[in-house]
Design a protein that fits this description.
The protein is of the alpha/beta class. It has a single domain, classed as Rossmann fold (3-Layer(aba) Sandwich). The protein has 5 helices and 4 strands. Strands 2-1-3-4 form a 4-stranded parallel beta sheet. The radius of gyration is 15 Å and the shape is globular.
Amino acid sequence: MIPAQIYNVLFLCTGNSARSILAEALIEHWGKERFRGYSAGSFPRGSVHPLALDLLRSLGLRTSGLRSKSWNEFARPGAPAMDFVFTVCDQAAGEVCPVWPGHPITAHWGVPDPVAFVGSEIERRNAFREAFRALENRIKLFTSLPIDKLDRMAIKRRLDEIGRVGSAQEVS
């Protein structure tokens, strides 16, 4: 039996401290053996936000190996070739990205930045939970796609649809 292809998925955000980190952990969880997750930022903060780590730990998701890093790591020779690249913040979506080896399929899945939320500790934690929920819904939809049975244009269309919704019930 031929082993199933493992798809490399890169999530991009400006700071790579919360949303893209949450997405990396989520794709590793929901993607099981089919997807390998990565994250990076155009201007990485240099550390993962403590509330992102707290949330992941509280839900039993992996946090080891998560770190804030530049997207340049994935544009260098020898970097893993990406099959998919998703921007999860509007600012990163508008920036000029590096040329990614492997010509990945790209999509924008904007999610409000929980780091920027101003409020009480409980409200800030809720902002992280909301970002997590939005990303989790999209990643569940993505990982359930029959990628090996769709052509590149059909995959791109589905990824764009997923990026426009806030919950699993809104995708056609």
